[in-house]
Amino acid sequence: MPDNQVAPHNLKHHFADLEQQKETSTFGMWVFLITEIMFFGGAFSAYLVYRLHYYNAWVAGSQTMEIKLGAINTVVLICSSLTMVLAVHFAKLGRRQWTALCLVLTMALGFAFLGIKAVEYHGHWLHHEVPGPNFHFEHVGNYDPHQVMIFFSLYFAMTGLHALHMLIGAGLLTWLLVANARGRFTTEYNTPVEMVGLYWHFVDLVWIYLFPLLYLISHSHNG
Amino acid sequence: MSSHAHPTVKMFVAVWIALLVLTALTVFVATLDLGPFNPVVALTIATIKALLVLLFFMELRYSTALTKVGVTAALFFLLILVWLTLSDYLTRGWTSYINPFQ
């Protein structure tokens, strides 16, 4: 940078300009999300292998899912993705109050999702579908109930990890709200809002695949 | 920076509506018994939804070439993960190797 130019206070000294800094952040965030894709990819592969081998148990387990609640949650998450994308949009325009409103809405929708998920978990608990010594599965079918327990183990592991990501997302949104209230973001510098946006949409992406795999694909089949 | 095309609110709302319509569609299709095609249809719709989120909400469409290459490489490696895993488990019955699932 030429000596006569004053550095914007958000620019770290090892970057040439704000654009290069932002592109570096974006790529770094994507690399992190790629590790997340591979991480969830392992869980999805395990799900696939077991479904192919314990097909009847998988059908029986998946038919205990409440499609209605799953669908409502899908809609809630899609709406939260819209409010997130609008938060980024308003942050870029430097409109602090609109940014704050969209961030609050995103967080509210995130907690609505977790609340509905908790209702579902409670239902599974009451029906003794939580893997462990109290697991009990009586639906008639040509399978070993232990195989259904594996289905539920993967169900809780995958939706649980997803819910954990949403909790972390809610924490990140809180951090953004505080920074936004302090006037940290301007039309030139709003990278954190954009990066949290990428993370939030990634969590939405995972659910886009979890919903059909856990709730939908075996709904009309006979185990 | 301003040389790139930038997404508009109108476009975000259009993508949002498309995602809602696709969700309704996939829930409806689940009530039909299409045999082996239920997973095919459901995963195709899910992939269209995922692409919409990736390209427009995550603004991959407007990203640098480096980011695009990185994400494409990740999807390729994800494919290898699933493909090699299945080429193991699905072919175990082809040999005299004892199948751990039986």
Which oligomerization state do the chains in this entry correspond to?
A: heterodimer
Give the averaged pLDDT of chain B, no decimals: 90
Q: Tell me the major beta sheet of chain B.
A: none
Return the structural class of chain B.
Answer: mainly alpha
The count of helical stretches of chain A stands at 6
Helix and strand arrangement:
The complex is a heterodimer of chains A (223) and B (102).
Chain A: H1 18-53, H2 55-62, H3 67-93, H4 96-126, H5 145-181, H6 191-216
Chain B: H1 9-30, H2 37-57, H3 65-89
Detailed description of the structure:
The complex is a heterodimer of chains A (223) and B (102). Chain A has helices spanning 18-53, 55-62, 67-93, 96-126, 145-181, 191-216. By secondary structure, chain A is mainly alpha-helical. Chain A has a single domain, classed as Four Helix Bundle (Hemerythrin (Met), subunit A) (Up-down Bundle), CATH 1.20.120.80. The N and C termini of chain A lie far apart (67 Å). Chain B is mainly α. Helices cover 67% and strands 0% of the residues of chain B. Chain B contains three helices and no strands. The mean pLDDT of chain B is 90. The interface between A and B is large, with 49 and 47 residues.
List keywords for this structure.
heterodimer; A: 223 residues; mainly alpha; Four Helix Bundle (Hemerythrin (Met), subunit A); elongated; B: 102 residues; 0% strand
Quickly describe the structure:
The complex is a heterodimer of chains A (223) and B (102). By secondary structure, chain A is mainly α.
